[in-house]
Amino acid sequence: MPNLPPLSLYIHIPWCVQKCPYCDFNSHALKDEVPHVEYVQHLLRDLEIDLPLINGREVRTIFIGGGTPSLLSSSAMQMLMDGVRERLTLSPDAEVTMEANPGTVEADRFSAYQRAGINRISIGVQSFSPQKLQRLGPYSRPGRGGPRRRTGRVAVAAQF
């Protein structure tokens, strides 16, 4: 068998608190509760279907995007990452990134994500300009970058 390159894995969490006016991604504003466990079970089933295509190759990077992946409960994130590790070979130094939007994170949840194996956070700061944030809607809350700066402090405190 030829020497095949390592893999990268993208995992999509499609829910958001609100659909941002600039976003073209497959994402949906929450209408009810996120179906945490059911969705993770479906993701892992999809991964099972694709396993024959992987041929035992190592995964070097995982990116969990969306939507707003930080809306996924810490227990569901643990279940997801455990399921991925059970099915795939991750490089010992694999970079596992999760998008997080300001206003949807808590210190204990960041710590739990880290225990699940997330080792990098990508914080979705759209702007620090109050005028631009005002146009993006109430979720973006202008004013001294409160949620954005708090999210950065929480991520640093959790050692991301």
UniProtKB/TrEMBL annotation:
One of its GO terms (biological process) is porphyrin-containing compound biosynthetic process. Pfam families: Radical_SAM. Residues 1-160 form the Radical SAM core domain. Its EC number is 1.3.98.3. GO terms for cellular component: cytoplasm. Signal peptide: none annotated. GO terms for molecular function: 4 iron, 4 sulfur cluster binding; coproporphyrinogen dehydrogenase activity. This is Oxygen-independent coproporphyrinogen-III oxidase. It comes from Enterobacter agglomerans (Erwinia herbicola). The lineage of its organism: Bacteria, Pseudomonadati, Pseudomonadota, Gammaproteobacteria, Enterobacterales.
